[in-house]
Design brief:
Elements (H helix, E strand, L loop, with lengths): L2 E4 L4 H12 L5 E6 L6 H4 L2 H15 L3 E5 L1 H17 L6 H17 L6 E3 L5 E5 L2 E5 L17 H6 E2 L7 H10 L21 H9 L4 E5 L5 E5 L20 E7 L4 E6 L7 E12 L8 E10 L7 E8 L2 E11 L6 E5 L5 E8 L1
Parallel strand pairs: 1-2, 1-4, 2-3, 4-7, 8-11
Antiparallel strand pairs: 5-6, 6-17, 8-9, 10-11, 12-15, 12-17, 13-14, 13-16, 14-15, 16-17
Amino acid sequence: MNIATLLSGGVDSSVVVHLLKEAGFTPTLFYIKIGMDDDELLHCSSEEDIEMATLIARKYGCKFEIVDLHKDYWDNVVSYTIDKVKLGLTPNPDVMCNKLIKFGVFEQRVGKDFDKTATGHYATTIEKDGKVFLGTAKDPVKDQTDFLAQIDSLQVSKLMFPIGNLMKHEVRDIALKAELPSAKRQDSQGICFLGKVNYNDFIRRYLGEKTGPVVEYETGKILGTHNGYWFHTVGQRKGLGLSGGPWYVIKKDVEANIVYASKGFDVETQYGYEFSMRDFHFIADNPWEVSPEEIDVTFKIRHTPDFTRGKVISTPHGVHLLSEHKLQGIAPGQFGVIYDAKSEICIGSGEII
């Protein structure tokens, strides 16, 4: 079998190469580059990543290629992110990066020549009734299916997730025993592909700063100032610079550049029990069809190890979700990711409105 492997230079994708070699495969390794050499912000971690990837390729006798997708990343992921932020919404560039770049452009140009594409994502694939579904990972803390919830069944059927049935500490142990150069490297916390890039620095680069007031939602009292509504998201607690908190972002007035905040852990304005989604994307098929019946599901509205129980109502206008528990910070623009009732299969995702 001819396998393409996406290598980031981190420990997870390095262990993928090790496991494939142990299974008798010699994959071709690819590093997707999205920063230009003279672009300080986007180039900051790629040199070290490429050096690590090169060492892994040498260790296992694999071909290694760098694929430059800077323009595609700009045209698709960056423009999507900036457009949503300008509207006051909460985008998820990682979701769109997986859909449009890693398993979109890369697949169309390079991956199509291979039988499978292997990645270091914490996810699994489940075959059922002749279809391939996206399954959750063994490690709930590292599970990344919420970042993969916009890919389709064709993309899922082509993918291999060799570490999906491992806990993170098991992956680290394999890397240490195999003496991989990336064994002790810290996990990236940045935007997809951007590694160490701070999200606010990324947004500042394209939208700049514009001072506006932070206003108490209940009283209209001015609490302080912010540098632009685009740096804040509904539900956010840190980063407001206010004393005597906790303070939560409740809503934003995009036209007036006002950020509204409420104080306290239990303030009702920051909670809700339901939300609707538009453009709901089913990964494999629609298990609900249009029905007035409430169907048991689990879901996430942000990256977290916990699944929340709820019910969905599928209507001609979209998917509506009713939660069993109150939800903090339901932010328009972010993705609601829906799973089956057992939290085993990711059904799909839609943009919260």
